[in-house]
Amino acid sequence: MVKHTVLVTGAASGIGLACVRMLRESGANVVAFDIQGERMAEELSGNDDLVLHTGDVSDPAACADVVTKALERFAVLDALIHWGAAHSSARWDELDAEECNQVMAVNVTGSFLIAQAAARPMVER
C-alpha cells in the first residue's frame, strides 16, 4: 500500500480538522497547516504521520515553509486540501476596507499562494 502525504489547510477546526482526522485514519501522512497553532495542537496529537505547522496562507513565506517542512519530513507531497479561510461577521455598512482586504488576502490570494507552493514539488516529481 502506498502511503500518501497530504497538506491540509484550515486544520485547526471545522472541515479541515475533520479532514485531517479522516486522512490519518485512512493511513495518510498529514501536514496540518493553520494560523491557529495552539488550537491545532490541542485538537491533534502528533506521531510519525503528522506534522503541525502554524502559519497564514496569505503569507508567501509561510506557504513555502510548510511545503518545505512536508518535504523534509515525508520526502514527497501528493496532495493539497485547502480549507483555510477567513470571514467577517460585520454587516456591509460596518465593514471597513482593512477587514475586507484581510478576508480577500486569505480567501483569494491565500488560495493561490498555497496552491502555487504545493504544486512546485508536485510538478517536479
List keywords for this structure.
125 residues, 4-stranded parallel beta sheet, 4 helices, 4 strands, 16% strand, globular
Description:
This protein starts with a strand and ends with a helix. It is 50% helix and 16% strand. Strands 3-2-1-4 form a 4-stranded parallel sheet, sandwiched between helices. The chain is α/β, with parallel strands linked by helices. The radius of gyration is 15 Å and the shape is globular.
How many beta-strand elements?
A: 4
Distance between the termini: 19 Å
**Major beta-sheet overview:** 4 strands, parallel
Share in helix: 40-55%
Q: Which stretches of 5+ consecutive residues score pLDDT under 50?
A: none
Tell me which oligomeric state these chains represent: single chain
Radius of gyration: 15 Å
Kindly estimate the percentage of residues that lie in beta strands according to DSSP: 15-25%
Strand order of the largest sheet: 3-2-1-4
Q: What is the overall silhouette?
A: globular
List the total number of helices. 4
Structural class based on helices, strands and sheet pairing: alpha/beta
Kindly report the average pLDDT value. 95
Order of helices and strands: EHEHEHEH
